[in-house]
Amino acid sequence: MIFNWFKIFIYHLKQNKLFSFLNVMGLSIGIAGVIFAILYWNNENSYDQWNPEKENVYEVLNKFGNADLWNSSPVPFGLTCKATIPEIESITFCTGWYNEDVIKYQNQKWIGKKIILADYDFFDSFPFPILKGAKKDILKEKNSVAISDETAKLIFKNEDPIGKIITKDNKPYVVKSVYKIMRPSSVEPNYVFGGLIREDDIKNWGNFSYTLIIKTKKGANIETVLKKMQHVNFVNRIVKEAKKEGVTPEQFIKENGNIIVVLDQLATARLHGTKSPNGDNFPEGRGNLQLLYIMVGLSILILTLSLVNYINLATASAIKRAKEVGVRKIVGASKKQIIAQFIFETAIIVVLAIICALAIVELSLPYYNNFLNKSLTMNGSEFYLQLIFIFGLVIILAGIFPAIYISNFETLKVLKGNFSRSKSGIWVRNSMLIFQFGIAAFFIIGALIVNSQVSYMMNKELGFSGSQVIRVPFRYTDQAKKGQKYTTTKQEILKFSGVENVSTFTGSFGYGSSSSSGFSYNGIFVQPRNIEMDYGFLDMMKIKIVEGRDLSPKFASDTISNWLINETLAKDLGLKNPINTILTSGWGSDKGVMKFKVVGVVKDFHITGLQSKVPPMIFVTMKTLKWNNFENVYIKVSPNNLTETLAKLKSYWEKNVNPDYPFDYEFINKGFAKTYEEQIKQKDLFFILNLVVIIIAVFGLFALASFSMERRLKEIAIRKTLGAETDVLLKELSKQYVGFCLIGFIIGIIPAYILLEKWLDNFAFRIGISFIPFSIALISLLFLTLLIVLTKAYQVTKIDVLKYLKYE
Hints:
By secondary structure, the chain is of the alpha+beta class. It is built from 25 helices and 24 strands.
């Protein structure tokens, strides 16, 4: 029986090559989209699954009043929590980001990447398998280092690395252990160096410079742990500071804000963790939950469109098989057997579609990986189970309705030969066609609005000019002499003919500043970003002063106690006349509070991406604090002879500044553009999926219009005999499809507006939704509809009248 079904399937496949091809391709595109989404979903949800402690490990974040969350804590806070909270099993302090440094062994050197500095029990929270060396207290000595097995092979080849000495920052470190990196993980370091904590920070409750990770005991109530940690903060910071100022703790909190502790669980931090403004909480970054949801949602929508397309084509083409069904019923075939036969045929088509989908995915995977910056592959038992599930689901959704529809054909009616004129099932096909138009409208509108938002971000005035300004990392190990070395370097490179200006500041355009200190003024608490800068920095970047003056070496007080603030901070503090206002802060002082005078107001500029509001900022000169925390030098270069200028800078830099590092630079504008890379990806994604949706919709519309018009061939022949003109026939044949298009468009614009408005709410600076994208979408849909339908209709009006009327 199955062999007979297969022969019938092959026969109809040959008889309807075009529509069979459209069926297979439509389904394969939809299934390919779902496979892409599954690969991305599996990867993002597999982070840290290898870690048996993932449910018990938490990163500690601190919220200062109404300001942002920061993934940094003071050392005594962590030590006190460990000592007084029994639910905490272990802690570790580490850098919440990767460092890069020169690693030397014997007479060789490497640029060590993915370096983490840590103290205490790092490998308790991230228990990578230890392949060689110590398994406990690995970082007990400050000159200890653990390295990955890949790094061990790179540096030591076939030697046993345990006990060997490597150097970083010209300091010796003893290799204590070799571990295996488990991927994917939120932390995948090649090196873990001990000796992170400075001695003078062990008792400093005010220095929020270290990422704190805690590991709780199994079964510990995390809400209880959080309350106890909050109590540690209250007793050791709020109460003591309030006592110093002679106020009650409640008054102190009212005036200065409270410090609220937030815990991010490792198991969920990748996708659902709380983002801090100074970067990703874990070195491997955060997952893009929004993009993940968009990918999954749109892929399901496309698969639904493909299924609707298939059902439409299947029910429309079923008319051609009406007599076959009637004959089979006459000779004894039951309704269940007919349903089983058509589901069997659907299963074959789905198998072909999945094979094509896998081929599409395999060919497109390199581009997809580049798009997501990942290395996804189609393997693993989980993926194959999901593929089997897709196979079963598509057969059920695509096969059941057409099979039941066909099995319900009335035997006598179809054998009389007049079933082709029946309107049975037309309302279902028309409803599905309207649904297709709705999905197409959603995608076209979405693509236009996302593109408009990205264009707005790319062209928005940023408040600074990064034109012809490059950022060059200033890697100088001697912190005490770093400022002096910068001054010498600046003087030397300013002599180069292609260098127009040189300056620096403690931050990075697009990513802000990692330094922040809170203070109060007239009972208003603020937590601004701290910007230390060289003289002339604002002028070089064309950042305007709207009130007062810039800081200048002409004024001695500018190196001691004068500040600039930005417009946002002036507004937050309610300063109508900010010039000469005295503000009190403990920033930069080990002896309590200092008084600073505002001498100028800086026009707001975007130091972070456009997703965030412009933060409040304060500006001082590097000579005021002498911390030398800057990481980059900013050089304005002439566009003339740029290649020659960069070559001279490279030669000087590698000889005099960073002999161990290759010269590296980045144009400021290009660096800032990275802040909206994700939005550009979403724009590109919408564009690609928009094409896919339109192609599938065109397939469905073409096929359905073809079947519909073929059913009306005798009607058209009679109309032509009675004198109907071609343009009248074209209008008659196409008007219902225009109606379907309009209804589908109205249905599609509602979810499009709601979802895209929600997407735009993620941006502090965004466009408004106008009627233009909706108008363009409607015109585009009408154009495509009329193009396809009129082309087919014109072809139908040229039929041979006698051929269809000679038997009437």
